[in-house]
Amino acid sequence: MEGQINVLKDLQSVMTKALASYKKSPKDRLTVEYIETRLELLENDWSLFKDTKSQLYKNYKLEDVIQKVADIYDTTEDTYITYKCAMKSALNKLKAKEAIVQQGSESNKMSRATSSLVKLPKISIPTFSGKYSEWTTFYDLFTSLVHNNPSLDNVQKMHYLKGHLTGEAEQLIRHTPITDANYNQCWLQLERRYANKKYLTNCILKRLFSQKRLLVESASGLKELLDTTTDCLSALTNLKIDVSTWDVIIIHIVTFQLDNETRKQWELSISTDSSNELPTLEQFKKFIEGRFRALEFIEPKKVHQGSNIAHAHSPKAMLATKTSSMLCEYCSESHKLCFCKKFANQSVDDRREFVAKNKICFNCLGSNHTIYDCKKQMSCRICKKRHHSLLHLNRDANTGMDSLVQDTATKSAVDNNSTDDSQIVACLSTGKIAKPSQVLLATALIKAESKTGQFMTVRALLDQGSQACFITEATVQLLRLKKSLVSGVITGLGNNRSTTAKYMVTLTIKSKIDDNFQLKINAYVLNKITSYLPEKSMNISSFDWIDSYGLSLADPNFNTPNRIDILLGADAYASIIKEGIVRSPTGTLIAQSTALGWILSGLVASSNDKEMQHLPKNISVNCAHFNEDNLLRFWEIEEQKSSKKILNPEEQRCEELYTKTKVRDDTGRYVVHLPFRNDDPACKGGSSRYIAEMRLKSLEKRLSKDTCLMGKYIGVINGYLQLGHLRPVKEGDDKKGQAVYLPHHAVVRDDKTNTKVRVVFNASEKNKKGMEQQKWNSNNQEIMKIIDQMKETEEEVEQTGPIKKENKNFEIKLDSTIKILGLTWNRNDDSFQYTANLAPLKTAPVTKRKVISDIARLFYPLGWLAPSVGLAKSFMLRLWLAGVSWDEALNKKVVQEWNTYREELTLLTKVRIPRWLRSKFKDKLELHGFSDTSKIAYSAVVYLRVPNAVDGVHVSLLVARTRVVPIKQVNIPRLELCGAVLLTRLLIETEHVLNSSREQVKVWTDSTVVLSWLNSHPSRWKTFATSSLVIR
Q1: Is residue 441 part of a domain?
Q2: Which residues pair with 955 in a beta bridge?
Q3: Out of 462, 505, 508, 970, which residue is the most buried by the measure of CB atoms under 10 Å away?
Q4: High-pLDDT (> 90) share of the chain, %
């Protein structure tokens, strides 16, 4: 008996060790053959174990055998079952894989057998972005290729599913891990969301009913109309909607989208006396198919003429405007990628992956070029590196993406060449004429002021057909002018893009003929304005008639080709032109008098009869520059900026002088000393007397030619001497060259009835030190024009007494009300009231430009009209989000809403705000600030409480501010925090003005979340809250 029991124990040990060895076997060793061999050995050991046990039961007593063998049998049986189940499971999996491989190899054999006949394209599953119109196509393909594929497990299906979702659909299952159990749950979640028969039907019907009406006969238009209608009906049928009885309805709807001639032909084809039956949809389709086939046959085809002779006698004139229909690469809506809210809501990794995948520039988010070819001078506003701020890594996702989008939009509005910001329309005329002649355009030599104040001679083209001025980049560099960023596209005729304008400069030009004429202009910077003008040299003998008239030409070398540095448009042309025109003997050329000299323009005959002359280019530009940045500031979450200005020493002296000398006289007027510069060597000397004498001699020479003008001028000077405004100056009064002399000249105005001749002192004339005398006073304004009298002494200007200005310092009769910047002060009850200064609406359509112009007129100092103006700001934000262009007519609903708001503004005239706060100078004042938030705006208001007022405790509204909520949705606690920040800044400014102590300020808010944030250290919270709390 003991020997047989030892056999059982030995078999038990063998099976236990075999199980442990199997579990440690590497995966590459677990083959079908290996597992089947182990199963055979296991079965042999188990059979021997059971045979030995049976012999024990036969040869010995049952009680003794059970007592000694029971535990061994139970343990061995458990080991056997575990070992066998593990090997059977592994064996089944291996066999299943072999079957798939075998099936695949068979299919490969079949595909190789048929590959010689046809090569089918690879089937790709489209991505699904969450649009209901895309769901059916995605569902059918994904179900067929992935969902019902038995060779894919759920993990693989889940991986494919996540890889083919974008946008809203991807966000739905973004945070679901890729596991076997989660696939079915995610698929059902997508089905519940998008397999909505109601929404799918609405999308299809919307597409069916929104087809555009054909205005003219068009084969392509009829094809599109028929295909769209058939596609929509098929989609409705797939949704198990019976459309078989819709023939009459569909025909009625589609018929109204046909052009007039096609509709007429259709009505004639069905209007027969022999039939009163309703037409069928199939009959209608056959008619449309026959119609577009006929139109394809009879439509004239475009023929390109290759002969140059046919064009030689007809000049071409083309007009072009650039209309940009830019679509977002992410959501396909009509805006740029940097403005896309959906794109901004994605994670940084997703945004970078999308940009890289679609080959978009990492710097400006523009298409058609890479970052290496990007010409935009911009960088990340966070790290200042060369990439877009939306692609900045290592940034907290909860830092207020709306602020980043707004800053991005602001920069992009300047850096990108968008016709929404600035549209420049160019008109070009070119061609060939057989007549031997050449067109001469008006040119002039002018002096342009450089950054250092020196004037350099440049050549200008005068073009009355241009609404903007231009300057070449080379001229800007020569003058060292400061450039400012603008945005605009210049297009040529035939809608051919010419160039872009990215910069603008402001410069001063002077005439070479008249030193007194100067003009400040704004000019767009271009690399080149036009080619040399004139195109070819002209025979100067053709212009002998100019000498007979004694004309002083603005461009003496007008007949010699030379470059154009500046183009002066109509905005400058009106200031330059003068009266006087002289025509050439042939009548084809004219000379026009201008402040720059006489300019020549017109048709000039050529001596070469055989040469074909090209007409020069004529540029006509319409520039409308719109700055969206100012609008964006209404709804941006602002950053804290220091409002305290650091004064320079001169400004500090002005502040001290104002504080020390400010008094109020008996009439109620404020009197203060003028801020003169005490020591400015640049204004002394500089041979100002010599310059004044030269101007005087020039004036005398001019007056000697006109005795009438001389008499009037002498009369004006004698009048000044009699009134004491002037006195003769002797040589000894110069005070060693420290006196300053102002040159003067006569101005004649025949249209005036009283002062036809007057004296003008030129304080802008520079002395030899380069100093303008008008800069002698600190604020660079005209101090006094005529001095009546001086008291006590005439030695120093600082010791002068009261002065009177001729016709300037007279008393004003005050009315009962005084208007100041839109406010009205009622002197009777000492209160302020508001008068709505809105222009009456005309019959012209209401546009975004008119609405914003009206909003800009709502002047409300101290925020007294904050609740009313907040509605206007919200209305402005809605227009901006709707993407309405500046001159696009608003729809009737929006116009009605705006008209109602304008009418209600007139009710504000009934509101009166007391000017006196019921406080005395030594009264203790308390400031109480309140902040609140809604879904439209957040606001802050400060009240002044006077405990010891004349009539008891008195509370007055002091100041208020509102802000429109950001474009991206921000939760209410964060908006409450924005309101608290706005209130804090408002209180800081109010404290500074009132000089009140911090102990007398109380701040109130009903947000417990904000109070919790304020009572904790900023380091505990995320970036958005931290950046707002640091101003505490």
Answers
A1: yes
A2: 945
A3: 462
A4: 4
